[in-house]
Amino acid sequence: DTNTIKNWSQESFIGGGWENSIDNSFMSSVVGGDRNSIGPKSNYSSIVGGKSNEVSNSAYSIIGAGELNKITGTTKSIIGAGEQNKIFNSEQSNISAGKFNEIIENTWYSNIGAGSKTKYSFIGAGTYNILSGASWSTIVSGIGNKIIDTGDTPGAILTGQYNLIKDSEFTAIVNGKNNTINGMSFDSSAVIGADDRVVDRSH
To answer: Which residue in 160, 154, 184, 185 sits closest to 172, CA to CA?
Structure first.
């Protein structure tokens, strides 16, 4: 194999696989897989398996398996499995599985602008779900759901597709599609079992 451990990566370990690497990361491990990388500055982090997964500038973080998953600029975060899931600059966050899910601090997508720091948040599964600037928030599953700029207050989307919570505190969308809760005037609101609903009052 051509696995490499380099640059101040004392007590780090690569179990097997091909072209895996650990760079400048103390007591970290790649158990197996193909082209997985840890580092730099990712002490006590681990990639169990999979292909082309990356942990960088992220201490105490784990990618279990999957392909092209990435954790960067965070601490104590987990991606369980899946494909092309991302946790960027978001502390103690978790994506269990799925595809193209993101927990991010700032985003380049023009339609949602930029969020503030995201921490203690969770995406269970699904695809194209996004948490940005949404601490203590949860998307359990679904497609294309977004929680954006809710600050340090909880918000939740349980399932469904293309639902949006933005700039609203203590809000929830239980299921359905194309539902929106948008604006601080609509705090403590909920959508349950509906399509194409725009919340127009709080509580």
So the answer is: 154
Taking only the tens place, the pLDDT of each residue in 18-30 is: 999 999 999 999 9
CB 116 within 8 A of CB 87: no
In whole angstroms, give the CA distance from residue 189 to residue 8. 51
Angle CA 141–143–147, to nearest 5: 75
Average confidence score pLDDT of the chain: 88
- Does 91 score more than 60 pLDDT? yes
Which residue type does 161 have?
Q
- d(CA 57, CA 33) in angstroms, rounded, equals 21
Cis bond upstream, residue 154 (ω within 30): no
Instruction: Note whether 59 and 39 are within 8 A (CB).
Output: no
> Cα dist. 86→29, 95, 185 in Å?
20, 8, 31
Calpha distance 203→74 (Å, rounded): 35
